[in-house]
Amino acid sequence: MKKASKDRVLIEGLTVLTTIGVYDWEKTIKQKLIVDLEMAWDNQPAGSSDDVSLCLDYFLVSQAITTFIENSQFELIESVAEQVAELIIQQFSVDWLKVKVSKPSAIVNASNVAVVIERSKV
Known about the structure:
The chain is an alpha+beta fold. It has helices at 44-49, 58-70, 77-92; strands at residues 8-20, 31-40, 73-74, 96-102, 114-120.
């Protein structure tokens, strides 16, 4: 039986503009979201061999998330987090991940609001 890896690949501060919000005025503008990801990935094969083909391609992951969020419309950051998690698990065969989605402009007198979810491959 294969031992589960405790290795992680992180993407932090991925900034994306999208249409998000529940109010009518929010549906007519683009707002900034910041995505932080922590993804389980066995980094030993790539680290031992120096072979890029064995890495989790964080550029492609970032590109997929950016394209998806930019081309979608959401009401809730909770929805963004769930859909990003599903996309990464399905498209990149990640077994577990933690997704944080921040909406820094959501509350005037707060520097940020965010949700954090953890999801695993079913």
